[in-house]
Records
---
Amino acid sequence: MSKLIGLAEAAALVPDGATVSFGGFTTQRHPMAFVYELVRLKRRNLYLFGHSPGGDWDILIGAGCVKRVELAYEADEAFNTIGPRWRLAVQRGEIEWEDYSNFSMVARFTAGAMGIPFMPVRSLLGSDVVARQALTPEQRQADARTSPLKLHVMQSPFDPNDRVVLVPAIHTDFCVIHVQKATANGIVRIEGQTFADVQQALCADTVIVTAEEIVDESSLRSEPERNQVPYFAVRYVCHVPWGAHPYAAYNYYDYDPRQLKRYHDSAEDDTLYAQYLEQFVYGVKDHAQYLQVVGGAERLDGLRSAPEYGYRPDLKRRRLDA
Amino acid sequence: MSELTYTLTELMAVTAAREIMDGEVVFAGTGLPMLGAMLAQRTHAPNCIIIFEAGTIASQLAHLPMSVGDPRAMRGAAVAAGLLEVFSYVLQAGWVDVGFLSGAQIDRYGNINSTSIGADPRHPKVRFSGSGGACDIACLAQRNIIIALHEKRRFPDKVDYVTSPGWLAGGDARQRAGLVRGGPSVVVTTKGVMRFHPDTKEMYLASYHHGLTAEAVAEDTGFTLDITGAKETALPTADELHILREVVDPERVFLK
């Protein structure tokens, strides 16, 4: 059975107010083309769960699409150590959030994926991640999708001297992951680091996969040990080459330092940011046109991975103004 | 003999690298930790193992990653997996000898804030990225190296938010909180190197960088810093600087 649908059609399935998680990690494999569609659709009140998102969240937050987030980190690491629209949204009181750590967020996705209510971790003890809450009890009560408790510290029932932190399972309406290869019926092959894409996908009601390549089922079934997500858990598949740009997709293309610089140079300023959104999101009709606006085939060819590396060893990463 | 010239970034990378012992498992973050770990691997610690939280184990880096999830981290890795595998089976299980941490504020016990500035984190004056894996590394590595810019406001008496627990209130507070191991062993800054008293766990000045005095470093610290016995930080060697500049970061991704 084919689960292939168009990207715009897939994005339109996500309603205002939905709970969503996106795959990837800071600078790699975010489903950016899908995210741009959500921005173009002017989705509102999205409720996002993540560990270390980057510009996928930042652009959605900056475009006013997001109401509440639960996260560990929001930035592009060396490209910008704070997500600028995330920082401004918090400082201006425009977003609700709760802080966790990467391990505890991944443990929460894992609990959801395993069908259990929580997961114990040995992390967080003594930190303000345990002692303080960004969401008020009233905010938690008012939305059934937020866990009534942020976490719970308990003694091991097997050893009173052993203490763990229980973190609540996550279930989302949607999970969108961008991967290297998928089949039309939803077998998924991630190349390189898997991040927490598998756990995120398996705790969502509806999984949408965007893929660099749609391949024959036999080619993925011939090496099942390299596939990650069972196809029955995947609802829709979209063919989206360059779907993670300006972030990287191992074995396909590198991140685009020029475009990331454009983003971060504009995102600190409301006017410049509005211009960025107009130029690269609202003002283009689809991903194909976006790829033209960011530099077209000539620019993209310069980002293609060298086969022996999986990335672009000669990529110009500094002094990009020249 | 002509004096070597070096930048503070280079000095800090060299000083951090010397904290890593051969054969150790290093949980490295983006920037200076990568420089330090790669330099250690190419000098005195060829068998140290670099792990990134996004999923790569024992990479043989050929190019500096710009994020811990960079495709460059895949180069020569022994295992590529995801966050769950690294955090649970490697970090929580106790395999990581040394982690790296940094932040906007650090107190005398090495507690670190990388969440927000302001008394009420719900209404912060300045918001940062948040913990990422920092809290987990702080809790679960066998020991941690803290890297920081040394300014008075960055070393306050009390941090606004404990993102990453250090020695908490000192003494055995860490153990009492239920943490099973770890704690910061050293703080490498733009002005000197601090360590922690074995019993009280209070930070003291172990060395001040060339051109500074112990008193000047104490003056730039927001809490009282014991400077008894502080010496000058060992200078980088020509060999270390050469490897750092020509082998580790020839692209000048992080070196200034």
---
Amino acid sequence: MAAPKGGYFGKILEIDLSKQTAKVRTISDELCRKYIGGAGMGAYLLTSEYKAGKDPLAEDAMIFVGVGPLNGTYCVSTRTSVVNMSPYTGLLSHAEVGAHIGNEIKWAGWDGILIRGRSAKPVYLYVKDDKVQFRDAKNIWGKTTDVSDTMMCEEVGDPYARTIVIGPGGENGVPYACATIERFRAAARTGTGAVMGNKKLKGIAVRGSKAVPVANNKAFYPAAVAAKQLAVDKEAWQGIKRWGTAGLLELKHWVSGSLITKNFQTTWYPDIEYIGGEEANRRFWQKHTACNHCPVHCMKLGVLRDGKYKGLIAEGPEYETGGLLGSNLGMSDFGGMMALIEAADAYGLDAISLGGVLGFTTECVEKGVLKPADLDGINPQWGEADSYLELIHAVAMGKGKAGKLLAKGVAKMAEEIGKGSDAWAVHVKGKEIAAHDPRGDKARAYSYAMGTCGGDHHEGTKPATIARWAMINSMVMCSFVGGYPWGKETPGVFTAMLNPLCGWNMTDDEYWTTAKRIITMERCFQVREGISVKDDVLPKRLTSEKLPAGPKKGAVFTADDTKKMHDAMYSYFGWDDKGIPTDKTLKAMGLEDLIDDVNAARKKL
Amino acid sequence: MERKEKKYPDALQKGTTRRGFLKGAATVAAGGAVALATSGAVKPKAAEAQKAAREPKFRYLFAERQNCTGCRACEYACSVYHTGVVRPSVSKVHVMKYKSVVDVPVICWHCDDAPCIESCPTDPKAIQQDPKTHGIILDEKICLGAKCLKCQEACPAQFIRVNPDTGQPLMCDLCGGDPECVKACYAQSGNPQGPCLMANKLGFGVNQAYRNVTPEEAGEDLLALLFYPNETGERR
């Protein structure tokens, strides 16, 4: 049980909201090396403490706001990983989010914040180095995310503090509510907002003033500089600097045929011209914004200068927000789309799930299985921002029949509505999928169907990249800067930084074993909750309806594709043909503790 | 927008009178002479030795505020140069996010009238301006630290922060004439607007219009400049 030599403080801040206490949990170098941090460390904490069938909203349910060894060092573009059991899917989920809060947590001297318990009244936390305050949130409760962010910094008297907050969506328990960082960044897709709302935790403000210990600074610093230079020079990133991810909107329409349109009816959407990156650049964007130490600054802010929503400041469109709340809803009005994106940010809702729900609802109304009377008279039609705005408001505030129905999410809505609506209910493991249609972009199916969280677009495009992403999410780096450009160089770039930073001698083999261990452990958690090969599939619409138009006309994700995907994935990670890790694999990865749980789950199948 | 004119009346008047203008111009001329003297008289043999020791150059630091992306590379570079590790809390230059929308780089403008030096009560003064580089140098042995901090009150740009370890003010010494933050910003940029930080002999000496605003006021300016017609930055 040696203390970490560098890269970690060896301390996790444990918060109990029921008792309003904070204590320190020490972590050893061995543990850090085994699970790295961020998503991996969160998965370890949750898997080792939870039993099968845990209630994600129980009082002792945990949220881990984790950082990795590279956070707060000279390494380029480090992020934050939020890990919890999602109340939406009932599965282990992790969300990686940019901006600056992760580094502030690290500089405050922590390798993560672990939150459990439930407060009697709304509170928020202020962490300044070793000091932790539980502060009354009665003035902030009920406010939208931007106001909460500003008010929290004002109340703690520190304009340099960084915040993670929930909006009205999380307070009202919408299961796909997100936690919002610094107004525009969202730790979404995990239902973190709902869990925080359930704990009556409005947010966390953090400020740190320490330096991260480095085992061998002389070797680490040049390695980090070289890694940053790779990110600066990479040609593919010059486009992201200019266009953000919005540039992909046009690309996926014209070239790869994977831009989702009108609830996955097609991927051909010529109106993208009016809502895509070029339009945004011409009329909307004013400012580039970067996360910590990042040369790519993919986040774009803009203001609407005319029209109905004049004066609206918003972030985006990004590829996912512009896809889900733009082409997915048949929008051709740029201002209207930005109003929807901003509404999702303001209420603290996951824009991907929200877009999926709105698209599904519209198709239900179009096909006549849902009447406006079932939605309090709101009549959603493709491309009409106003009715969508009304619905978003209803969802976030939990208002009326519409709000209650739409807050359930596509999977449960399809069950409730019936009438064959599951034919166009697009979700994986109960979660809506993101804006890349896997019929046009088949590699993306790995991320949706095989990724830990389900329906997630950021978990790799083949078994080897799923392993790579596991490390990226655990070291907690940006998957742009850290993931894509270093394909060939991986893992050399990272071991060159990690070894001098932490005083390790990690080889390439150990690096990949660690990646496989993290993915396998996450899988064990899901297996315990009843997940197996039957759940690793894409929804009916994507496997049976051919694309009607566009560059990938006629494409469909066949049963053969699914089989190939399963075989490749399970054999790479050493799982059996039901998608359950074998005893041999678990032993080889040092996960013996989980063998009994996994075998018990296997018997239930 | 209402400026806090009462707080720094002298500085504001100086910026607008002809006398102030002439004074600034004269300083630049003198500065130019210093720079020429140092760079022109380099002998070939001594050149290498001087290169290693960093050429002192008379400079001003300047921040093109609307170009800042808020990446904090300047804070990283500053703390790495001065302490060897990344530690933004002791970085001299820093970036403030205003209303979570705009980023305000807060820098030392290296004013010719240097209100911080004027306000320093010790004798000899703990804060000096290096005549060769124009950087502000703090003598940690003389500085009274947390019980004084008159310089912090005097700085019209509210640039000066306090070192959490020593309680002494953090002063920008221009890294001996070749500021690391500027290099980091340049390397980081490549963005469509170009870098935000620059170091050179700019304009007519100190730029009063830039330095006489607090970070909050600069944030308001940026919102009005970039996000018209929503100058308040509130959500609509």
